[in-house]
Amino acid sequence: MDIVCIGAAEWHGIWARAQQFMVRLARQGHRILYVDPPITYLAPLKNPALWKTRWQEVDQLQEVDAGRIWLYQPPVFFPFHGMRRSINRMNQRRLGSSLRKALKQLRWDKPLLWTYLPGSCDLLSTGFPWQGVVYDCVDDHAAFSGFIDPAVMVDMENELAREADAVFASAMTLRDKMRRVREDVTLVPNAADVEHFRQAYGRCETANGEQSVAGILSDGKLSTGKPDAEATDICTPSDLPSGFRHLIGFVGGIGDWIDVSLLARLAAGQKESALVLIGPVETDVQALKSLPNVFLLGRKPYGSLPDYIRHFEVCLSPFRINELTLSVNPVKVYEYLAAGKPVVSTALPEVTPFAPVVSVAKDEESFIEAVRNALATDSPEKRAERLALAEHHSWDARLEPMLQEIQQKLGEK
After folding, report:
1. Which stretches of the chain drop beneath a pLDDT of 70?
2. Within this chain, do residues 231 and 284 fall inside the same structural domain, yes or no?
3. Tens of pLDDT along 171-184?
4. Which of 65, 163, 194, 346 could form a disulfide with 69 if both were Cys (CB 3.0 to 4.6 A apart)?
5. pTM for the whole thing?
6. Is the separation of the CB atoms in 33 and 108 below 8 Å?
């Protein structure tokens, strides 16, 4: 199939569900046009860097994987499309017109639309002959903060779900919500690129040519992941902090859904440990910046993440518990497990079933205590248990039944 994917995250941003599925579909021979989420005319005022990046790339088609995957930057949207249906219709008409030109350039006639954004409902009315429509629901869009009218967002999402040929949901809460619109919604939880993150558990060349097993010493005890004085581990990123007894890590976007106060309290009480946060910052983190043992390293390339996680002794999933996060199925938890790392998470409904392999904390005190306990009690046996659990939650395993259902639905049209 030729597939147009309307992503909720930038292709070159934090890799998550959409990118993982599209890469695997491309490997199977399907051709992919990935559409980055649009920016609005207001976006560069909040983030001036967009003037030099996304703004200049608008309406451009880029081949990112020869003959298999193309990246398209949509036209700039008018703001408030999450609050006014009329504005969304206008934006989607502009997107539809631009997509026609891109698809003509690719010589695609009747692609499948695979979308992650509720606003795509109005793309369906632009007269384009889609082979079929897939809605993959991974967020409670109406619960996001910002320029959103929840009623408008729910209305658009429900319309998209009714019109789609197949609807999937990444969390039970999302599945149940979508089933109020149609019964045949399929739960497909998130997963991990197991092979990729298992590299964090593997062997690593040292500068003097020796082999070391990251995290496990020859006597079976856990190391801090730091090289000894005579052998500098060349897969240790240069910006990782040194001089601390432990490294505690988090990988992911740092937005208002992350409990910054919890992280600050953890770091303040663990002064012998460095708290390393990897990912773009989209909320107020002043409480963290004021602490000498907190290191905000920013976004890192997907390919380098195992090199960072390899040195974390505990990995965190510190989500706030609110309406938005009750439907979150955090990809990072699966990735941490695939790296064999101890995981401490707040009590998200989608994470709770992984206890006790994942330490699930119901409040700040138990979260901090779980981190201390993980630092003191980790073992090769526990790491092997995490790896075994991760093996059952790969993106490849998730995609196969989705494709079967899509093909069945298209066959019934």
Report:
1. 50-52, 55-56, 202-234
2. yes
3. 999 999 999 999 99
4. 65
5. 0.89
6. yes
